Amino acid sequence: MTDFVRPNVCLDEHLNVENGLLQLEKWSVPRLVADLRAESAGDGSLASTIALPGKLLIQAEVGWTNDSPVDMMLLIRVIRSWRGWLTSNPNAIQFRDRWTWAIDREPSIPVTTGIYNSQCGSAIDVGTNSVSEPNPGRQWVWTPTTMSDEWVGPLAPGQRLNVHYRTYVWTPPPWSDNANKNSPQHQAAARYSRVQLQAFPTQGSLVVG
């Protein structure tokens, strides 16, 4: 049986020698280090919600500590499921989402009053009759899956990135209580969002002989 002999080579932080074989460390390649699917807790009928941020549908908190000896760049990726809503003439419905992040501390709560990462929605207006009642009218809308990315870093060894994500829905004013000729129907469904963290290595700075 051949004995393995440790080779006399120089290594950086991305390499290792085990049983005489030169190997890559796990952190030398991009890694998916967090993947959370956050379900909506408020899908269904929607009442008048004309004050921002609106009705909270989805909330998620994820984090990751750099377990490598090199700095890491982090990619925050948010994947939104298809969304659907029903609104009645002459009202509007809008979704907004936002995430916040911080290193080695808790991030601020991501409300969508002034700053947000995405929005989608619609309104319908098919007029009124002779006595100013809204004409009958309903609008159904579905949007496809969407995705957003943000780069964060570098994250030093031992540092932790924390991310807080929220999705809200609201009904932008003005709001008509007698929509669809006194037969209002309003619904909203965000289904879920996936919040991922992907770690990308930076170049090593040390060499071990």
End-to-end Cα distance: 27 Å
In DSSP terms (H or I, runs of 4 or more residues), the helix count works out at 1
Instruction: Tell me the Rg in angstroms.
Output: 25 Å
Strand order of the largest sheet: 3-14-6-11
Instruction: Report the portion of residues in β strands.
Output: over 45%
Count of individual domains = 1
What is the H/E string? Answer: EEEEEEEEEEEEHEE
As a percent range, the share of helical residues equals under 10%
Low-confidence stretches: none
What's the pLDDT, averaged over the residues? 90
User: What's the story with the biggest beta sheet?
Assistant: 4 strands, antiparallel
General shape: elongated
How many β strands by DSSP? 14
Q: Can you walk through the features of this model?
A:
- With 209 residues, this protein is mainly beta.
- The chain has one domain (27-201).
- The protein has one helix spanning 179-182; strands spanning 15-18, 21-24, 31-39, 44-45, 55-65, 72-80, 83-88, 92-103, 118-123, 138-143, 146-155, 160-170, 187-189, 192-201.
- The chain has a four-stranded antiparallel β-sheet, with no helix packed on it. A four-stranded antiparallel β-sheet has the order 4-13-7-10, with no helix packed on it.
- A hairpin with a 2-residue loop joins β1 and β2.
- The two termini are 27 Å apart.
- The relative contact order is 0.34.
